[in-house]
Amino acid sequence: xxxxxxxxxxxxxxxxxxxxxxxxxxxxxxxxxxxxxxxxxxxxxxxxxxxxxxxxxxxxxxxxxxxxxxxxxxxxxxxxxxxxxxxxxxxxxxxxxxxxxxxxxxxxxxxxxxxxxxxxxxxxxxxxxxxxxxxxxxxxxxxxxxxxxxxxxxxxxxxxxxxxxxxxxxxxxxxxxxxxxxxxxxxxxxxxxxxxxxxxxxxxxxxxxxxxxxxxxxxxxxxxxxxxxxxxxxxxxxxxxxxxxxxxxxxxxxxxxxx
Length: 259
Description:
This protein has helices at 9-13, 22-26, 55-70, 94-111, 133-144, 160-174, 189-192, 212-222, 226-229, 244-247; strands at residues 45-50, 73-80, 118-124, 149-153, 181-185, 205-209, 254-258. The protein is of the alpha/beta class. Mean pLDDT is 92; it is low at 1-17.
């Protein structure tokens, strides 16, 4: 049985102490039962919300490429600068790390063909989005008001910042009589959940089955997050936040969103 990681554990410790191996997910026969995701029409605005500068690329980098090719208008909003990923680093201060991660995100989006897309950084405190719920929703609102669809982290993902972003996106959508559809993407759930877990809303799950080029583009984008996939130094506090066992969840041929 895999235990659900604590709220602050994932980002600060790098990954949960116990997690479901990707081999278990890839062997799951439930993938075949998930309906394919119906995409928005060409020309519609899709706003992509993330808590940290990598969440969206990791979880739905393939879907982002598909939406771009379809002709959707993509806009990205990142709530934090990811400055708390290595809180005890002797190598990088939070300010320097924030700048570094912002640059990485720009290069990653370019790998997905989205270098010209609108990008808004809210610069809210990494690790404390749950304490800024009202501000987060208010700051998100301008970026979501014309969207047909909002992609945001799942409200049950197990990371407090991810969950706060998901809740804020739904809060903003509910402010309008005909607000945008909010599609939620899991990130950390792949680590603590198990195939078929009742804690996951499989009834709302829709699959994005990636082609070879989409997987390659996504892999190239993920590799741009050097501060997360490689050690900052030999010091244990600079260990990768996304070691190979964790990255394996994001290189499979299927992405999932909850509609």
